[in-house]
TrEMBL record:
Pfam families in UniProt: TauE
Sorted UniProt keywords: Cell membrane, Membrane, Transmembrane, Transmembrane helix
TM regions (residue ranges): 6-33, 45-63, 83-101, 108-129, 141-166, 178-199, 211-232, 244-262
Source species, domain of life: Bacteria
Protein name: Probable membrane transporter protein
Database matches in InterPro entries: TM_pro_TauE-like
Gene source species: Acinetobacter faecalis
Amino acid sequence: MELIIYLLIGAIAGFTAGLFGVGGGLIIVPILYVVFTHLNYDPSVIMHMAVGTSLATIIVTSISSVSAHHKKGAVLWNVVRNLAPGLVVGAFLGAGIADLLSGQGLQLLIGFFALWVAFKMFTGANAVVDPTKHLPSTGVQVLAGGGIGVASAIFGIGGGSLTVPFLNKCGVVMQKSVATSAACGLPIALAGALGFMWFGHATRVEVPNTIGYIHIYAFIGISVMSFITAKVGAKVAHILSPAMLKKCFAGLLTTVGLYFVVKGLSSFF
């Protein structure tokens, strides 16, 4: 039964990853939090395990999603190369920062962050990308990658929630922003997952079938299905209009954001 749940999570998360370029983390983290809670795992590490396992699954999801986007010629590989060094270093550091935070602190951070990004995306849904804007210098892109990497590891996402708006602001159209974001999810996920394994091992997590903060069965189940459905989501992303894609993206973030803000605040009352 537990494996079936992980397979279902993977199916939904994979489709979401391909559609929005968010790595599926915004779906995986809240569902894993609920599943781990019902399995009566140690409450002090449940949120960290949800985030760490989410990052691990994004390794597989990103490979599937980016291959579909690459066939459409939508991935800006020069931008991926510029962002990658910062993404890797930032993601590992982000895992260390997340390890220092309480579960409730992580919930509130993820919740408010998702709501903020949703607001920014929805209000700019019908905005036309300014063709006169250009990507910043390589050095600035590396620094931007560092910031995106840190935040992505803390939130257990593939970076799409930050990479997509960043590229949009630099004049990159939505479809190419989503595709490039999907490619950026791989270095984030690799470095972040290693970080959560490392810091989780140091914390000595007492939960069965885990390596650090990563749950092995959840990783396998979610990865198998997400690899398949991510390609379907990527195809749909190229059918929808940029404005519709932004509104759907904002709706998803709002739902997740409200969930975690409510959960985080309820622990204080």
